[in-house]
Amino acid sequence: MKKLYSNKLVILSLVLPGILVFIFAILAPICLSVYYGCMDYSGMGKATFNGIDNYKMLLRDAAFGRALLNSLLLAVGFVFIQHPIALIVAAVLDKLQGKAEGFFRCVYFIPNVISVAVIAYLWKFIYNPDFGLINNILKSLGYQEKINWFSPNIAIWSVLIVLIWHGFGWGMLIYYTGIKNIDPVLYEASAIDGANQATTFLKITLPLMKPVIQINVTMAIIAALKQMETVYLLTNGGPGNSTQFAANYLYQQAFKAFRYGYGNAIGIVFIIICLVVTVGLNTIFVEKKEA
Amino acid sequence: MRKKLLVGILAVCMTATLLSGCKGKETKTEDASVSATQQEQTEAEKVEDTAEPITLTVFSNLPDRKNGQGLVEQKIIDDYMSENPNVTIEVEALDEEAYKTKFKAYAMNGMPDVVSIWGQPSFLDEVLEAGILEPLNEADYADYGFVSGSLEGFKKDGKLYGLPRNTDVMGFYYNQKMFEDNGWEVPKNYDELLVLGKKIKEAGIVPVAMDGGDGWPLAIYLTDLLVRVDGNIKDIVSNAIATGDFTDPSIVEATKLLAKTAQSGLFQVGYDSQDYGTAMNLFTNGQAAMFYMGSWEASMALNEDISEEVRNNIRAFTMPPITDGKGAQTDIAAWNGGGYAVAAQSEQKEEAIKFLNYMYQPDKLSKYGWENGVGMSAQDQSAYMTGNETNLQNQFTDILNNATSVSGTPINDCGPSVFKTAMESEIQSVCNGTKSVDDFLSVIGETCK
User: Fold this and answer.
1) Residue B241 and which of A20, A47, A119, B55 are 20 to 30 A apart at CA?
2) pLDDT tens across B181-207, in order?
3) Using the beta-carbon criterion (under 8 Å), do A235 and B273 form an inter-chain contact?
4) Model pTM?
5) Any B CB within 8 A of A155 CB
6) Residue of A nearest to B428 (CA)
7) Which top CATH class is B51-165+337-384?
8) Rounded Cα gap, residues A187 and A261, in angstroms
9) Cα(B5)–Cα(B274) distance, rounded to whole angstroms?
């Protein structure tokens, strides 16, 4: 067996599929994007080289700035609202035991099972000022004014609520699995020492969940940066660009505005931002581990 | 033992094959004995049978194949296939936005044979520059009864690349019964429209259902107002797009009026984030008194999904004139937008053009369209007036016949697609007051430079 693994041809045959997938599915598209990002190209006909003009334009593009700001807001929402709640809910579920545990685990995960298109239209109807659920509840409580939940000032918050609600199940499920892996002996020991529920959570669950939290936070931030489908179907970035997100803006520019070159430039900047964020987060977490 | 069994099975198979061969011979002998007359009769069928099978692909922006324009298109396709049994037509239909995205993907990797197109610079300029469409011989269409000027949007450098399907007129649909029950009257000028809007709102009804989420109906509304302000807008718009300078007083005035209208509450709450279907449902469900949309929705009067009380009472009027404006109510926002073309790289080009020409035979698109109440064709439809037209059809026909001028392509479709995209997004901001009129005009101007 050892002899087999030291054969370079065997090693190559084992590594080659992975390398090929990486080259053709990741590296080549990125290289093509870099190439088209330096072109004035509508996606049809001839492309003309324009150097870094697309990137210069991107720096002055207020809509792209707004899209990045919205992505940042969503990332903050995920990290400071969605995940703390998901972690607490996971801890509570763990304590529930029995049928209730399974039931609520399913209930909290349901939004993740429903298709994005259904979610978007469901919330469109919930938010509708004329026949939406929220305004009708408010009306039955005596509030007659029709609230526009997608008015430019509050539209982004309405969108964030949907996105946080929709992604909640995944975060909770990962935390729940992490909690389930904690050795019950530790809880028994803490109970014998007289620790209450809050102390047990803060002193045992939370410290042992650190690796899971790190993975979840990294995934949440990347998900916030990549956000596209729900926003596209819910508001398409509007009104104006008030709910614009980077991926949606990329799509609009490349496929609606026929600015394929510019769209690719957005894609490249987008990749760089994602890489910087991932490397940054890894550095922070590694430093903390060492400390 | 096993060997014997195998030999047995093989022998049975061989005998069966031989017998079937003899039977085939028998049939052929019988065939040879049919009479000469029958032979002649089947000759034509044989020619058709032996004609090489052809598969045409049609890429359409009409996904609803059971109602309206999509039904008309499908009927023509079915007719063509029954008249040409060797031709199979495969249809791929997507709604407009998805259609335009996939159109671009096809442009890179081989287009279907016959495609839907828009005879407007925002769509056609890039498409023609890329050489995707096959030029057509304009002289072939001399007898097709196209309305004067309707082919212009589909031409470049004197060559014709597509044919228009409709003549589109923009207007306010209104619920006549609701108006009568509440004592409201069709406004004679724009100020009356704004006053009427307030009255309707006070009655707890949405004055005008507007598809503001898509941006383009707002842009057409702006075009309509610009026509009221200046009468003839073609030069103003083309100059603004050529120079990127949108500070012409007429454009500024029309934009201010649009912003004032939107902020006065003429449209439903949240109009700037609501889509076509939501806006239309408000009107067809009786929650809105008016609906600003094109003549292609005249088929609402025949749509049995809409309650009888509403569908029998839908009427239309065009944008009322404004005080001191140069445009009259008979200067209308109308254009020839959608149509069809043949792909330059089609492998079945000859058959595709034959099918395109078949679609535009006067008794096809025009006739079927009129019978199904889907609005006005870009061809002369007078021969198909039956006297059983809906009130809406008659109203739109009168509006078009009595028009003193037509706006041509709406402002958002006059420039490149980057201008269109920016305008349809930014117009929401100027309407809801998050962007000033000057900033809006400056931003859309930048996209033209």
Assistant:
1) A47
2) 999 999 999 999 999 999 999 999 999
3) yes
4) 0.84
5) yes
6) A240
7) alpha beta
8) 57
9) 75
